């Protein structure tokens, strides 16, 4: 007896698509940026009390400040410089999935903070979202090539054309008062995140045998 082969399909979950995905990404980054501004308002109103949560190098007690430091800034000018690139790059990264973005952001913040803690100059204090900004730049630049996605490659190239000069300047050690270490470790962490959170191609199920 010959059995007709069956068509086997997978129940792949695609999640948000199109406009819904864009709305979710936009709301996430709007809330993220709003939180940064709210914290800076609180910091200013309290005589910059939150500045104490920046990271000072090689002090074990400062490890607890690695995450908070990524949400704090030294003045509104510092915050303004990070707001637009964070909002744009964060939105583009979050279009790939909210959970994926949160994982990427967490990896960048922690890896960047540890790098700053290890190698920053003694008696320095580092805070700000620029490490995450540089990390998202590296992530977007590498993501398309890692995932072999032509649209994401185009996005990365556009981001590189728009912010590449600023990124290169930001990792230069010749700027006084700027943590090039934080920028460099953020950039490296972002590229690493593209590999850690790369899209896995689902395996095709084996077809049933013929009888």
Describe the structure.
The protein has 7 helices and no strands. The chain has 211 residues and is mostly helical. It has one domain: Rhomboid-like (Rhomboid-like fold, Up-down Bundle). The termini are close together. GO terms for molecular function: serine-type endopeptidase activity. It comes from Streptomyces solincola. It is a multi-pass membrane protein. It is found in: Membrane.
Present the secondary structure layout.
Layout: H1 18-45, H2 66-69, H3 76-94, H4 98-119, H5 130-147, H6 150-170, H7 180-196
Give a nutshell description of this structure:
This protein is mainly α.
Largest sheet: none
In one word, what is the shape? globular
Radius of gyration: 21 Å
CATH class: Mainly Alpha
SSE order: HHHHHHH
What CATH calls the topology is: Rhomboid-like fold
The tally of helices reads: 7
The unreliable regions are 1-13
CATH architecture: Up-down Bundle
The fourth-level CATH homologous superfamily is Rhomboid-like
| Range of strand content | under 5%
Q: Please give the share of residues in helix.
A: 55-70%
Average pLDDT across residues? 90
The secondary-structure class comes to mainly alpha
Number of separate structural domains = 1
Distance between the termini: 7 Å
Give the number of DSSP strands: 0
């Amino acid at each position: 007896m010959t059995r007709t082969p069956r068509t086997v399909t997978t129940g792949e979950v695609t999640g948000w698509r199109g406009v819904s995905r864009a709305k979710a990404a936009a709301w996430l980054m709007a809330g993220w940026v709003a939180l940064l501004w709210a914290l800076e308002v609180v910091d200013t109103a309290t005589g910059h009390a939150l500045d104490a949560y920046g990271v000072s190098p090689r002090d074990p007690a400062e490890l607890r400040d690695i995450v908070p430091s990524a949400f704090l800034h030294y003045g509104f000018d510092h915050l303004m410089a990070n707001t637009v690139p964070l909002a744009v790059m964060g939105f583009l990264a979050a279009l790939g999935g909210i959970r994926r973005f949160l994982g990427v952001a967490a990896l960048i913040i922690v890896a960047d903070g540890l790098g700053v803690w290890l190698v920053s100059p003694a008696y320095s204090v580092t805070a700000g979202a620029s490490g995450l900004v540089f990390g998202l730049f590296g992530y977007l630049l590498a993501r398309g090539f890692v995932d072999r996605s032509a649209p994401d490659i185009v996005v990365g190239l556009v981001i590189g054309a728009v912010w590449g000069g600023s990124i290169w300047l930001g990792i230069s050690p010749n700027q006084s008062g700027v943590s090039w270490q934080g920028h460099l470790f953020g950039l490296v962490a972002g590229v690493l995140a593209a590999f850690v959170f790369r899209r896995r191609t689902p395996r095709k199920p084996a077809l049933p045998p013929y009888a």
